[in-house]
Design goal:
By secondary structure, the chain is α+β, with helices and mostly antiparallel strands. It is 20% helix and 30% strand. It is elongated, with a radius of gyration of 17 Å.
Length: 87
């Protein structure tokens, strides 16, 4: 990738443009979706695996809930709290 600034070409190589998944563990990996809170509009980024895992936990545990990291709104489904859009 290159950028033209004032007639000088600057080459951008080796830069990391991936957005990391919000669920950080022993190994960091890229997000594949943006999740926008339906209450406050805050945006987080997550991978397909962690969204699927959260959906399973919420579906199988009647006491589980998902909470927005910004406004503390609580819902019992991922789609009830967030609008999920693939990146």
């Amino acid at each position: 990738m290159s950028v033209l600034l004032d007639e000088d070409t600057i080459v951008l190589e080796g830069l990391e443009f991936e957005i990391p998944c919000v669920k950080v563990g022993p190994e960091e990996h890229a997000a594949e979706n943006s999740l926008t809170c339906r209450s406050c509009g805050a945006v987080i980024f997550a991978c397909d695996h962690h969204i699927a895992l959260t959906r399973v936990i919420l579906a199988t545990n009647p006491w589980a809930a998902i909470v927005c990291l910004s406004c503390d709104t609580e819902e019992d489904t991922v789609d009830g709290l967030y609008m999920v859009v693939p990146l």
